[in-house]
């Protein structure tokens, strides 16, 4: 959606297990098992080709960028697919670890249940369901001082209601009469966060804190800024400051201050420590050993600031045998087990075609640091949080894991269908690429649906009141629904179905969200002005205290925008000291190009 705002086009789908705007990102069959591949950067593409022995692809000038590879997907896949079948998924994974490539085996549910590491860490736990005992997904958040409560039993159907655990309308908290509109009464005002994260997951975590009022200081380096500023470097990238124009970066880093520090230099490291000594929270999603090797491990920071909450957001966790695995949001989804239950019966494992793991990991991380922050405010003690992002995706697979742990049967895959509801699916409407999602979740809804699509005989047939009975004629039902939807566009079909209380929603393209009436009624989009970008829409935080969204107070910082403000105002450096830091390339406001970088590193040495 971010890129649709900027590009102004519809951005159509590009196929199963193909992931715009990068390629190759998908799931491939191997000699034994399935492999998740995410070769995004030019370096990763070269390494991946070398690993597979495909020098022709590696050296092809049209395939250096993701855009070029997207235009040649079929040609590339014709060479990747047979080559990947020569070794097992585990063998490719081991090679990927050596080369720092985001490759990961796509596990089946049985693999997750038999994973001794996940059982030992609490990612897979025992659970009682009535008289039966099975296993399910535990907590992915390793808070050292505030761990989750172990054990517990799943309530039977209706038991929770009998306990009085369901809030009624009369018990609801009344809406506040006064909104939070001016930025001076935000919930996290006065909390300082030092943000070492990049990409989507970590920056979403810290952006959520910033949206809630925290003073988030994003730390980059002119040598190696946030990679979400752009991984491809087309002509003019540095001269035209294209790294300041990436819409995804602008969305994920609003309401933050930004500074640059070369953490590999003693002067930069010392300043980072001074900054962290004044912080409440720090978040990083580098690979596990990066910050400790720089001298910013939790043992060091705890001595500097005992109340500091530090969170590491790696793919598999700090203590995993796979701790060095490089990962994107796609990698997290591929490694979670979710693709094994998604897709059609008998088909291949399927991804969601978006970096689903990133926002899920980011929001889980935000919840974890807020729990730790509450504890720190009460006790004065910070703590270390080891967030394994691949495990943040596992709750989506929890129902299948639990059932499989009891009956041992591989879970059925339904495609767009549903295990309990019939019909349930996505149906083509009139017009180009126009679709609607329709579901009948009870007998009454089914009867109303059958009536409106012109099948009163189905509505009157009491034998079809159960979803099990309708399952036997599901193909016929879907044909009948699509015959009706093809005669109208998705919005018209949605209105007609919702009018008779049938669950239905038009399948929106990202560009459609700009004019969505529901979002408009909630003032979801706020306009923000930013240097190099101009006026652009930003989505509001979905959490709000009343009808008014939290304000977007500032646009995402340009590179090093607040260097002087932070170094002078917060750390007390003089103008002369700040100028020297800039001369030495420890700070700066312009990204160093590949030509400038070796010279700057030589000067530093």
From TrEMBL:
Sorted keywords for this record are: Transferase
A single Gene Ontology MF term assigned here is: CoA-transferase activity
- SUPFAM superfamilies with a match to the protein in the record: CoA-transferase family III (CaiB/BaiF) (SSF89796)
Entry-linked Gene3D superfamilies: Crotonobetainyl-coa:carnitine coa-transferase, domain 1, formyl-coa transferase, domain 3
Phosphoprotein keyword on record: no
**Domain of life, per the record?**
Bacteria
Write down the InterPro entries for this protein, in alphabetical order. CoA-transferase_III_domain (IPR050483), CoA-Trfase_fam_III (IPR003673), CoA-Trfase_III_dom3_sf (IPR044855), CoA-Trfase_III_dom_1_sf (IPR023606)
Chain coiled-coil ranges: none
Q: What is the recorded name of this protein?
A: Crotonobetainyl-CoA:carnitine CoA-transferase CaiB
